[in-house]
Amino acid sequence: MAEKRKFEQTMSELESVVKGLESGDMTLDQSLAAFEKGIALTRECELRLTEAKGRIEQLIRDSEGSVNTAPLNVK
Questions:
Q1: Are 44 and 12 in contact, with CB atoms under 8 Å apart?
Q2: Is residue 1 part of a domain?
Q3: pLDDT of residue 1
Q4: How confident is the model at residue 73, as a pLDDT?
Q5: N- to C-terminal Cα distance for the chain?
Q6: What are the Cα distances from residue 13, in Å, to 18, 31, 41, 45, 69?
Q7: Is 55 part of any domain?
Q8: 34 and 68 in contact (C-beta within 8 Å)?
Q9: Got the DSSP string for 17-34?
Q10: What are the backbone dihedrals phi and psi of residue 73, each rounded to the nearest 5 degrees, phi first?
Q11: What is the pLDDT, as a whole number, of residue 71?
């Protein structure tokens, strides 16, 4: 089975694709290919975040098996 890329690697690649699209220096075909790649990378990131959320919820289950969640306060 192929090894998964790290989330940070995927995000970095996605950022690079976005910068390329924003530059406006691509042909229409290049832009479409980059957009498709960006969508695939976005989906990969979403999957990794969903997996991480599931792992975190497993770690914070209470003794009765309930998951208690609270908003994250980031300042």
A1: no
A2: no
A3: 44
A4: 58
A5: 40
A6: 9, 15, 8, 11, 31
A7: yes
A8: no
A9: HHHHHHHT-S-HHHHHHH
A10: -95, 105
A11: 60
List, for residues 13-65, the tens digit of each pLDDT value.
999 999 999 999 999 999 999 999 999 999 999 999 998 888 887 777 767 77
The reported pLDDT for the residue numbered 48 is 93
Range of the domain at 38: 7-59
The predicted model scores a pTM of: 0.73
Q: Does residue 27 sit within a domain? A: yes
Give the C-alpha distances (Å, rounded to integers) separating 24 from 12, 21, 34, 36.
19, 6, 12, 16
CB atoms under 10 Å from CB of 73, counted, come to 5
Candidates 4, 37, 2; CA nearest to 18 is: 37
* Closest to 18 measured CA to CA, from 50, 2, 41, 1: 41
